[in-house]
Structures are given as structure tokens and as C-alpha cells.
Design goal:
Radius of gyration: 22 Å
Order of helices and strands: HHHHHEEEEEEEEEE
Oligomer: single chain
Shape: flat
Structural class: alpha+beta
Number of domains: 2
Number of strands: 10
Largest sheet: 5 strands, antiparallel
Length: 245
């Protein structure tokens, strides 16, 4: 699972999964949905720090995006979107949607706090897309989609990057450089595929930092799909303190 700080939690398609007409609403009312995804996550960050990490805000870097956290983000974004739509024309239909998603966002947040926010002990950030180049080889002309992920000292693996794409001419093979590594990283993995979404692991053991990966003359090998990130190792719940007297 990705970390809270890896980037935007939900996607535009997640919003569309709950509201099939959300693109039409955004177009009609001139609402930037991508910006709403960012703003709602910023509000969630403030909420999480206030409720759970007031004494140590940096703990937010250890938060894992679980299904419950993603649901909160989706509802929060839809609430912000319909609030803006309503405030543009005071349309009662938009107001109803706004209030409903506001209620659902609150419900999702409270359930998350009760069940616990997923945490990891050693967070490994999502990698940036790799730098690709064509190296001399004997492969035919082809397209390659490449993703990478950082690995840690205990074998942990962070969320795989978004893909970089290379159109390799005939007589060349893809070469991948991971770029600057985070302090916790001890190596990296490379995932390559002939189509988007089909990237598979190509290395048996983590590639050393500072080294590049070049596709061998034997071509791509079958492997597991690109890693989605770390799973929680603990859960932090909202502690309710009742004063006596």
C-alpha cells in the first residue's frame, strides 16, 4: 500500500465510481477535480495531525493508505466538489449531494479513527519515474513501460513509481537508472512490460544503489507485478480521554 505522503490518494476514476456524472458537473461548473483531490488531502492531513499526531507531526510519514483512508479521501473530495457547485448557483440538487458526501466523509473518518490508522515502522517512499535510455543490443524495435521501487534494509519495498515509457529503436535494449535514492533505501527493483499495466519484476535480488539495469539479450523474464507498497505493521487509534468530576 502507498504511504499518505506518496501523493494523491484517490483518483478521478475513484470519484467517478461513486458519481458517474462527476465529470459533467465539473465541466459545467468549471471545477478542477485534480485540485479538489489535492485540497481534500490537505484537509485530511490537518485533521490527522490534530487528532493523532499533535505532538509529533512527522509521524504522518508513517501512515499507510488503507481502504478506509482512501474511502475518506474519496468522500471528502466529492463533498468539496459539490459544495463549490452549490455555491456557484445555489442549486438544491448540488446542496443535497454536498451534505450527503460531507456526512459520508465524517462517517468514514470516524470509522477510521475507531479501527485505527495503519502505520509502518520504517516508511519507504514511492519512487519517482525512472530515467530510461536505449543501449546497444540486438532486440527489435519495441515499446517498454518501466517502473521502479526502493527497497529497505529489512527487505521492505516501497510503492512502485509511475511508469516511464521508452520507444527503443531496432538494435537497442532499454537501460534504466533509478535516480537519487531516499536515505532509507539500500537497493531498488525494476519492473518492465511491453504494455502499460503489465510491468513485471526483472531482478532476482535488489539492484545496488548507483547501478543501472539493462535488459539482457534474452529479453524480459516473467515476474510478479509491480509492488503496491508496504502493509501496516501497527495501527494507531484515537484515544478518548474523559475528565473526572
Amino acid at each position: 500500500m502507498a504511504l499518505f505522503t506518496d501523493g494523491t490518494i484517490s483518483t478521478l476514476e475513484d470519484l467517478r465510481g461513486y458519481e458517474s456524472s462527476i465529470y459533467d458537473v465539473a465541466s459545467t461548473e468549471r471545477i478542477d477535480l485534480s485540485q479538489k483531490l489535492v485540497l481534500s488531502q490537505q484537509e485530511m492531513e490537518v485533521d490527522l495531525i490534530t487528532r493523532l499526531f499533535r505532538d509529533k507531526p512527522t509521524e504522518l510519514t508513517r501512515v499507510v493508505v488503507t481502504a478506509a483512508l482512501q474511502l475518506w479521501h474519496t468522500f471528502q473530495t466529492l463533498a468539496l466538489t459539490y459544495r463549490d457547485a452549490y455555491n456557484s448557483h445555489l442549486n438544491d440538487r448540488y446542496q443535497g449531494k454536498w451534505r450527503e458526501y460531507e456526512r459520508l466523509a465524517k462517517w468514514a473518518a470516524e470509522n477510521l479513527m475507531a479501527s485505527g490508522v495503519g502505520m509502518v515502522e520504517q516508511p519507504i517512499p514511492k519512487a519517482q519515474p525512472p530515467v530510461l535510455s536505449a543501449a546497444a543490443g540486438s532486440a527489435p524495435a519495441a515499446m517498454y513501460w518501466v517502473r521502479i521501487s526502493w527497497t529497505g534494509p529489512g527487505g521492505q519495498e516501497g510503492c512502485a513509481s509511475e511508469p516511464s515509457v521508452l520507444a527503443a529503436p531496432e538494435g537497442t535494449v532499454p537501460r534504466t537508472n533509478a535516480g537519487a535514492a531516499p536515505p532509507i533505501a539500500t537497493g531498488w527493483n525494476v519492473y518492465v512490460g511491453a504494455n502499460s499495466g503489465e510491468e513485471q519484476l526483472q531482478n532476482v535480488t535488489p539492484i545496488p544503489l548507483g547501478s543501472s539495469w539493462t535488459m539482457p539479450e534474452t529479453g524480459l523474464t516473467p515476474g510478479r507485478p509491480a509492488w503496491r507498497g508496504q502493509s501496516p505493521t501497527s495501527y494507531k487509534r484515537l484515544e478518548r480521554v474523559f475528565r473526572r468530576g
